[in-house]
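Crash report, auto-generated. Payload:
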Amino acid sequence: MKRLLLAIAVIFAVACSKTTSNQTNEVAIIPQPLSLSKHNNAFVVLPSTTIVCDVEEFAPIVKYSQEYMKVGVATKVPKNNYISISLDKLLAEEEYHLAVSNDSVQIVAGGYGGAFNGVQTLFQLLPSEVYTKQMRLPAVVKGCNVKDRPKFAYRGFLLDVARTFMTKENVLRYIDYIAYHKINKLHWHLTDNQGWRIEIKSHPNLAKVGGFRGGDSPINAALGKWDEKYGGYYTQEEISEVVEYAKVRNIEIIPEIDLPGHSGALAAIYPEVLCKKADGTPRNTGIVVCATKESNYLLLEEILAEVCALFPSKHFHIGGDEVNMSQWKSCPDCSAWLKKNGYTDGHKLEDMFIGRIQTILAKYGKTPSVWNEAAFGGGLSKEAWVHGWKSPKVCKQVMAEGYPTIFMPQQFFYFDMRQSEHENGAIWGGCFDIRKVYSFDFAKEGFTPEEVAQVKGFEAAAWSEVFLSQGGDKSIDFIEYQTFPRLCALAELAWGKNGSGEWQEFHNRLYKSHYDRMADMGLNFRITPPNVKYENGLLSIEKIDNSAVYYRMEGSDKRLSYRGAIRTSQPGRYLFWAEYRGAKSPEVAHSSQYKTIKPKVTLTSSIPDQPKHGYHRVADYYMSMRTSRTYKEGDWFLFEFEEPVECRSIEFVTGSHAVPSRLITKGYLEVSHDGKTFHHVAELNYGRAKLLNPKPIKAARIVATSDDVPGSQLRICSPIIYPKW
Ligand code: TNX
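Recovered output after restart:
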């Protein structure tokens, strides 16, 4: 009788789990386990199912599992209908075995990490609804046996809350997202030029003042937010809460206080940390901490001691990246130090600085982690973890120095980079989507198996300079869009890229099973766009997954369902995208959509240009010219075309394109059709103004209506002009 009831329950649950379009009976785990065998038995989670676990250390995991599965706990192993989590010390700490039978799910783990990993695999065997914490019961656990462990001990994600502040609640959300993917390190970038996000009780102004930008803050606002004061920081209590939350989820947080460069926020509060100017007078702007000022080491020790106490990790990231040596070289004290020691290379100062900080950290039981720039001085302890970000080649050099190396070359793992040419995001490190992340291959990058065995792990970075600009309050959604699903590929690499290693096989698991999971996690993830084909007058879509394809006509918001090839002589007018349960791909179109024209044009301005990037380059449709100073109210830029320009749209852009900065925050655009009289046609929005179907334009002028913050220069771009169809 019991068996019969169970069979009915299974049928019922399988039927329920089919409610969303993709859910299959496939066992499709991301990251792919080391060994997995499917079988035809299945366990059914019922309201009466219990979790049994007699390992005290695993208690937080039991509680965590209950939040998702809404089942009870048992103190003794029942006859059937249970999920057990137990310890086998012969397994490695993060290793686990998971066996599904009709009667039970048994997870045996080598330690806390293994038990947590086992539970994550269990979640992926359940309907994706488990991630909503409202899974309907009965729910089927697909039948399989898993023996699994990660290849790399370090599977990390960097969250940059210094550039774009993220509330504590959002940080916790991120910890959940990454934990679902068996990521076990959060590299928390807490300070940078643009903000100081951690409360320091002995120096309260660091966070209270340095945690905010704009308005009366000494730290400039970003992009289009000049007047408004905004930002935030975490109190020490909040930091501890986040650390604890992460710990339950098998995530170790490595804090970063970025030194001696990237210290603009620190210097905004304590300008005395900066070097002197060449004439000996104090500097009042800059981003590099003076390496020879004794008082700096006292101040830094006070700060670092507090941060050390808040994070249980033995590892403490102290930065070391992108130090602008010119500030040290022009400092009389720093240059005297170099001279006295017979050096000319400013890096010697960085080595000395890192060495001093290393000594301070040692007092508090910590080992430094650094960016790759700081790995070649010789003084850094060989226990230090080095984050290789420049390129795979630099990672190799770091490894040759004998350091445990974390791979995060920007060309593969910088998720602030845009995912295709016409999307938002940065570009300097590359332009790539999940497929490229997944393609990272040690052999192709010239690593021997012996070297691979020495790799500590992988890390993806969500640098956030560009995020704020991409939609204000929506910036959190944009971080998700940039991170997922690329992070799924990183998780798979860091786990060991088990399985075939073929993109298609991974992609199948991703869209057939993991899209639903990400939707239920509540993620705003990116769907890989379909391919657009145009042949013999027929415009069609090549689907690569089973998301629905829609399109719209250029200039219209009306969403149309794509039902089959479209006959047209103007393929560029159609913009397609794919959608799956609220998640979207970027819009894609035939290449003619993106063709621009380059009519003859000149540029003049009330502000002088920089010779190397002079205004004459406007005629070459050079991307961005530079001014020799910032702007004041009334400053203008005038574009004059040789012939009136006919076009379907024209856009005028100030600021650098990838990261909207150095732009005119407030101003307007006026155009002239005869070259004499001008009409005000648009206000600048994030430094830009776009006109649709304008009358032929002979000249256009951008006029600033506010002053910029002092000290910076401006970028001004060639107009972007799309021809008439
Ligand atoms: C370089 S990576 C940086 C970061 C930026 C990033 C933007 C590294 C150590 N420094 O400060 O945010 O590029 O892509």
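Post-recovery validation: The longest strand covers residues 636-645.
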